């Protein structure tokens, strides 16, 4: 259990440190072009993708966007493009982790990244690299800790239920994301479980659906007392993911087969499923962008 706690601390802490370093290094460059990059849905999607990759969190991008809309810095329609891209950009963490770094390389590279943190000109780069390597170190600890979970009867019983009942997998994904306050961290943990054979790939797909829905809860709560336009942004985030689940639920076997074309590795397939789900869910909205925006306005009426 100690290895699991330390591993989670390093994983979540690593995500936060990498997010901070990337934000400090690049976010100020994006602020000056926010208006230009949100003039069309396509540009907004690109901006949302880049920003979510920097912040390593679609929830953080959604909360920032809600704040900008609340302050009348951008309109709901401009913000909607960013939300579509945020779901894509958040996949970067999972894809980075799927690359894996051998444990014998982590400590030397971590020492180098800490030296970069001391060097003023490269401090932000050093922080981002330190965060990334901390994530890999956390994963190594989680692997050793999670192996013991297979001996827990409660864990085994739940996994058996999730394997036979997709809704258990979806609810598990929602709860895991709420617990970690990070769909990326929840998906990374899922990758480890799949790699160790504790979760089959179809169950992992359903958990990913839940992870994406769970990532929207914070933005809904945050926008509860916000202006109408800001609440529409939060609604668009959750509706985007719910519609994605509705579309992909009957196509789960197709999604799994598509992931298998990219890699034979189970954890890699989980990362691919997560990425395909988010990319396709966002891209399928672009052709009906205006209709989607009108639907949100019907659900959250007001001026």
From TrEMBL:
GO function term, MF aspect, one: sodium:phosphate symporter activity
Record field: transmembrane: 43-67, 103-120, 127-150, 170-193, 238-256, 276-300
GO CC annotations on file: plasma membrane
Keywords, comma-separated and alphabetical: Cell membrane, Membrane, Transmembrane, Transmembrane helix
UniProt keyword annotation of tRNA-binding present: no
Principal location listed in the UniProt entry: membrane
Topology term for the membrane: Multi-pass membrane protein
Localisation: Cell membrane
GO biological process, one term: sodium-dependent phosphate transport
Keyword Ribosomal protein: no
InterPro entries: Na/Pi_transpt
Superkingdom, natural source: Bacteria
Name recorded for this polypeptide: Na/Pi-cotransporter II-related protein
Organism: Sporomusa termitida
